[in-house]
Amino acid sequence: MFRNIMLSRAVRKSLSYGNAVLAGFSGSYYCSRVCFHQTAVCKVASQAECAFRPAKVAVVTKTTRYEFEQQRYRYAGLSEEDLKQLLALKGSSYSGLLERHNIHTFNVGHIVESLQKQGIEVRVVKRGEYDEETVRWADAIISAGGDGTMLLVASKVYDKSKPVLGVNTDPERSEGHLCLPVRYTHAFSEALQKLRKGDFRWQWRQRIRMHLEGTGINPTPVDLHELQLSLQQHSKAHRISTGTQSSTPHDSPEAPHLLPVRGLNEIFIGESLSSRLKYKSFKPHLTLSLHRASYYEISIDDGPWEKQKSSGLSICTGTGSKAWSYNINKLVEQAVEDVLRIAKTKTGLEVPLNREFVESVTDTYNESLIFSPEEDKLFFSVREPIVNRVFSNSRQRGFAKKVCVRSRCWDACMVVDGGTSFEFNDGAIATISLNEEDLLRTVILD
Amino acid sequence: MFRNIMLSRAVRKSLSYGNAVLAGFSGSYYCSRVCFHQTAVCKVASQAECAFRPAKVAVVTKTTRYEFEQQRYRYAGLSEEDLKQLLALKGSSYSGLLERHNIHTFNVGHIVESLQKQGIEVRVVKRGEYDEETVRWADAIISAGGDGTMLLVASKVYDKSKPVLGVNTDPERSEGHLCLPVRYTHAFSEALQKLRKGDFRWQWRQRIRMHLEGTGINPTPVDLHELQLSLQQHSKAHRISTGTQSSTPHDSPEAPHLLPVRGLNEIFIGESLSSRLKYKSFKPHLTLSLHRASYYEISIDDGPWEKQKSSGLSICTGTGSKAWSYNINKLVEQAVEDVLRIAKTKTGLEVPLNREFVESVTDTYNESLIFSPEEDKLFFSVREPIVNRVFSNSRQRGFAKKVCVRSRCWDACMVVDGGTSFEFNDGAIATISLNEEDLLRTVILD
After folding, report:
1. CA distance A385 to A310
2. Which A positions 379-408 lie with beta carbon below 8 A of chain B?
């Protein structure tokens, strides 16, 4: 799936982003000289051209669980002692949360100090305060947290010349796939030195864009399953958005609307669990929620439309191929062992079933799900496809340049990077694709 | 997994419930004579004892899509012509929906007529009107719809002597796993004849019960992520439910609370997509929703507690082993083929990779996921387990008599049969088990 340069087995196994491959990439660059950013070229040619010397850096910090719990009970006016007891009752450890909070805070301090020592102007911005103005001001943005914080930081960057770096501020608790290697968390000055010397590579990560069209789009959120709501509003909104108030054959169809977000990991389409109907026969704590299968039609690379029913549809980038998509598609050893055992029984062949072999087959299978963040292709996969008389499923997964989905859902959404969701109901059509303009500029440090 | 009596290959492949096995079952019965309900005994002994001759039957009908769409726009005062256009704009077919509606209505009529011809008193009850009083009144209840309607009907029946039958009123659109064989939809009098003669078998389907305890239970629904809500209410509710207002070591712990529902298919535990935070920087149609992995601890059959992170946990009965659980665990041919190919490459053995063999291995694997509705065991499976430094996963699935789950989630729920959900947040402990008292009495017709 991708060519491996300088990829040791240990690194591959640990799924480190830091050493992912540059798979033949072309485009315009920030460097003063055109260069293809293959390691050899960067190191052989003048490194000064590749040097990274920002004057202004924004450091965006995550909200720790401790901060969240404090804020949660802020209105209740709880003392620290109260909070401690409440958490204990829930089986959570106050001291544990405080410890993680302190570790994060310390690591943020280290980053800020290292930057200031280089004479760089630093702005520390909390997650909730981070906005487009911060992005405009900064020459570069550092995400200080985990992968979630990186996704947030990336979500406001549309300029492919603006670099984003991730530092994992709690390596013991956070995977940090999108962050620099863990050792730089405590040795950030070393990272800065390498960046200043040009001893690094740029990595341009592909991102997903979405166009939305059709009658399912509703700028006003209306929950059709809350029967108490005024349905006149919904009907009116539909008429306005589709122009049926004066419908003539001459009305031009609404142009597809480009959504103001980009997916760094993936787009997930599916029925929401959030449809809640309240019947008076139920006690207050029982709300009837309808978890339904998702119905939609899908067309891959302008191919024929296929009706599908499943738990949802994931479309990811190379970056996202290690995230949710990976968990949807990976196999556990227990399943692989069962398959091998059945094959052995049916053929009489001496198929090994020992732990080592099963692990080896499982690893190879799972590794094949991963591809480079820089490859300009999408990976789609159908989660828990339902196949019966009505619904077919020719391919449960595969690569594509473009995926079109037409919703046949009642209360579905399109979730971008697990953080932003759009209504995607019956009649809406989404076109999902990649565009060079949407690249996110990040850094690979050895 | 279960012994097959009179199970033809074709029947097994079609996953028909009608011929599932009675796997050694004991208990008290409705019949005047104690009998073990194996086919031989029923047919040899007096069939009159096994005859089924209800005097009063409730027929619970589903809401068709057509009826739903009509109700949805009721307040807008749309004419049928308006409705037709609106549906057409969404790509739905008004005439198609009307056709399905008419088919359903016709089939309901057939059921009612057949019952009345036998001098049986019939009450036709819409889905929304069905209640405990209906159950008390009826000698037997017929579900006229699909599997969803059967689940609803079963959800109000707690008396294991009260028979429930499902008739699939739209076989072309509905799978009807929980319903009588499709031919009885148009020949219901024939079904009635067999019931009256005793030419059938009782099937007692196991159901799941749940006990809930701990501080995560909140009788008042409070959405912690809606920061506008009064958090004093939440804090107060917590204090009341945990009795911390006067906390002394002498306070006895709250006893586990038996929930007033039973799962016929499965219990599913997971983080809800419904956490929605509204930030002022987003336009109205973008709501930040947080789709998180589910964190919990699990103990199987009083075994050691294990911390897990996944997309959720499914615990099903034999009935449910063909439903959602099946879709979570089944493999597609594409995946099986890849596993076999990798095994072939690694061993050099002549593992077949042709379509027929791959299909055969896939079918055998998937069939092993199914077990009899009458077996008194639960099947647990972890959906998309996340394995890393912190979280382990010793077994992705298996059988158990009892499963305990402790929530470490922020906004999770326990969903019963895809229809009813309970808050299940940080600190709550659920004990999931089977009990003979909860059996649902249904019918097997050949």
Report:
1. 4
2. 384-386, 388-390, 393, 395-397, 406, 408
